[in-house]
Specification:
Keywords: GTP-binding, Hydrolase, Nucleotide-binding. Belongs to the small GTPase superfamily. Ras family. This is small monomeric GTPase. Its EC number is 3.6.5.2. InterPro entries: P-loop_NTPase, Ras-related_GTPase, Small_GTP-bd, Small_GTPase. It is globular and about 45 Å long. An 8-stranded mixed sheet has the order 3-4-2-5-6-7-1-8, with helices on both faces. With 220 residues, it is α/β, with parallel strands linked by helices. Helix 4 links the parallel strand 5 and strand 6. It contains 7 helices and 8 strands. The C terminus is likely disordered. Bound molecules: guanosine-5'-triphosphate. Guanosine-5'-triphosphate binds next to helix 2.
Length: 220
């Protein structure tokens, strides 16, 4: 089972995105050590969970056809710096490169969740290249280890709602489906951000502001 909170921003993107050119999406994966960033990346690229992953920082690419449109994902699987300082956890280069962020924590590791909280702030305050609501999806991984949970899904849902992020709780080890949902949600948000960038906020901007006040949809 996958728990999902959809950020409001992505809800109408398919209808609004008229062009059919190839779309490129730079996705930056961030999170503490050992939370499953590489596992998530490899699952998305190959559909497999192989158990152990080297600790190499890499950018991978995968092309897909989604809704009849060619999408090229560039995925930067980052390494969390050993000597980490909340203020410098995301470099300027990363902020500029990324169109959207996947912030991963482990549901069994409270410190990794606290880091995600700080990273959300860091991105929201930083100069990411997409102005306005920079697309972020928060991922609580290792749902198969529920018996060792130290972060509740309610707490993470609250963080996602209050910071306008998507949220999924998944087990990369158990299913490919949850991983796919994460990337597709982020893609929706990136498309939405680009549409917003092109035109005035208009009705959509107003609807989003109202939603921020009145709350968002949650789907189980
Ligand atoms: N039980 C369980 N283990 C997982 C899951 N996802 C990843 N792991 C394990 O967690 C460990 C760390 O996974 P990685 O993908 O290397 O984590 P990472 O965040 O890339 O770690 P760094 O390279 O240190 O930054 C590995 O032993 C994985 O097999 C999951 O959903 N459930």
């Amino acid at each position: 089972m996958v728990i999902q909170v959809k950020s409001n921003s992505g809800s109408n993107s398919k209808a609004m995105d008229g062009t059919q050119q190839k779309l490129e999406a730079n996705v930056l994966l961030l999170g503490a050590e050992n939370v499953g960033k590489s596992a998530l990346t490899v699952r998305f690229l190959t559909r497999r969970f192989i158990g152990e992953y080297g600790n190499m920082e890499s950018i991978y690419s995968r092309s897909d056809r989604i809704d009849g449109r060619e999408i090229s994902f560039n995925i930067w699987d980052s390494l969390h710096p050993q000597k980490s300082d909340a203020d410098v956890c995301i470099s300027e280069k990363q902020l500029q490169w990324a169109d959207g962020f996947i912030l991963v924590y482990s549901i069994c590791d409270r410190a990794s969740f606290n880091l995600v909280r700080r990273q959300v702030q860091c991105i929201r305050q930083g100069k990411a290249k997409v102005p306005g609501a920079t697309p972020i999806v928060i991922v609580g991984n290792k749902r198969d280890l529920k018996h060792r949970r130290t972060v509740s899904s309610e707490e993470a849902t609250l963080l996602a709602l209050s910071s306008d992020c998507g949220f999924f709780e998944i087990s990369v080890a158990e299913t490919y489906h949850g991983v796919l949902l994460v990337f597709h949600e982020l893609l929706d948000l990136i498309r939405e951000a680009r549409t917003t960038k092109k035109g005035p906020a208009g009705l959509k901007g107003i609807v989003r502001s109202m939603s921020a006040v009145f709350g968002r949809r949650r789907t189980d």
